[in-house]
Write a structure and sequence with these properties.
The protein is 24% helix and 32% strand. The chain is α+β, with helices and mostly antiparallel strands and 343 residues long. It folds into two domains: 2-80 and 151-231, Rossmann fold; 235-337, Beta Barrel (OB fold (Dihydrolipoamide Acetyltransferase, E2P)), CATH 2.40.50.140. Strand 9 and strand 10 form a beta hairpin. Helix 3 packs across helix 4. It is globular, with a radius of gyration of 24 Å. The model has no long low-confidence stretch (mean pLDDT 89).
Length: 343
């Protein structure tokens, strides 16, 4: 069953069109992520779904109920949609319990508040105020407040962006587990690739107000539709499918002129010794990142490769020094990116 269906959605700010015919379907109980750079329309899409911004065209349907189609416009407060903004936006003068219970019917408010405190792991915190909580605890309260009315859909607008890296990783894992536990349908918007890959069942890449590609994280990462989507999902080496290049690397591809092979950095292997199906490259930079070394390489003259390649070397030993010429091999099956033939 489809939890959210967006069809041919357009939205404008003043005279500027921000969303151009967006199509997106999210299954009931799925966690979706809209990924893209700042200014691509992510937050506007969330605001249109929430009812804070009217659609200029197209339809928004949640749980089988049409919320916006140009004729019908259900007000935000009647949409049964929970919304968690970046800052959490808790009421500073209210206790944790009062924040969670805000807007709930009086009859079973206390029981629901206790249930939500238990759900987000904040038992015993009900009498505290937001200023007495850590950033991660405040975001859990914001999540509990959004889930308390049992919404049909939960929207999360970069809710982890203000947290430090370690807390952000821990909290997004907790939130994803919590949403799966409650079988909530949710849409997260972010520009953080790691966050999208770790959180979502479905990723939609938004580019200049259009969905460039949508699918499961593994599918998008390994089989993007074009070079821009490939780079959106992480660092990418794009190797031209020139016969001489393919032969040197021991690769084969039947491709139109202008095609590329997508090779992710972990697919490049570095060796001090000459090896079959390898090309010589000079190490220009090397950065130790704790879990690996990020190595930038420049092909030696006469090698038909991009001017710069990125490889990730294992962290248990240092790669050869900068300036060293190493032999580079491609492992696994690179993904073929064919040139576009039309719109």
């Amino acid at each position: 069953m489809t939890g959210v269906k967006i069809a041919n959605l357009t939205a404008i700010h003043g005279r500027n069109t921000v969303l151009h015919g967006v199509d997106l379907a999210v299954d009931d109980g799925a966690l979706a992520c809209v990924l893209g750079p700042s200014g691509c329309g992510k937050s506007t899409l969330l605001r249109v779904i929430a009812g804070f911004h009217r659609a200029h065209g197209g339809t928004v349907t949640v749980g089988g109920r049409v919320l916006d189609d140009g004729r019908t416009h259900v007000p935000a407060e009647q949409r049964r949609i929970g919304y968690v903004p970046q800052s959490g936006a808790l009421f500073p003068h209210l206790s944790v319990a009062a924040n969670i219970g805000f807007g709930l019917a009086r009859a079973k408010r206390n029981d629901r508040i206790d249930e939500m405190l238990d759900l987000v792991g904040l038992n015993g915190f009900g009498d505290r105020h937001p200023y007495q909580l850590s950033g991660g605890q405040q975001q859990r309260v914001a999540l509990a407040r959004a889930l308390a009315p049992r919404p049909d859909l939960l929207l999360l607008d970069e809710p982890f962006s203000a947290l430090d890296a370690a807390l952000r990783a821990d909290l997004r894992t907790e939130v994803a587990d919590l949403l799966h536990q409650t079988r909530a349908t949710a849409i997260l918007v972010t520009h953080d690739v790691d966050e999208a890959l770790a959180f979502a069942d479905l990723i939609a890449v938004l580019r200049e107000g259009c969905i460039a590609q949508a699918g499961e994280p593994h599918e998008l990462f390994h089989h993007p539709v074009d070079a821009e989507v490939a780079r959106t999902l992480g660092e990418a080496n794009l190797i031209p499918t020139e016969p001489a290049t393919l032969t040197a690397l021991g690769l084969q591809a039947t491709a139109a002129p202008g095609s590329y092979l997508l090779v992710r950095p972990p697919q490049l292997r570095l060796s001090d010794e000459p090896a079959p199906a390898s090309v010589p490259c000079r190490i220009e930079r090397s950065h130790f990142r704790g879990y690996d070394h990020r190595v930038e390489l420049t092909p030696e003259s006469g090698v038909a490769l991009p001017n710069r390649l990125i490889a990730y070397a294992a962290a248990d030993s240092a790669p050869p020094p900068v300036g060293t010429v190493v032999n580079v091999q491609v492992s696994g099956e690179p993904h073929l990116l064919q040139p576009k033939t039309g719109r």
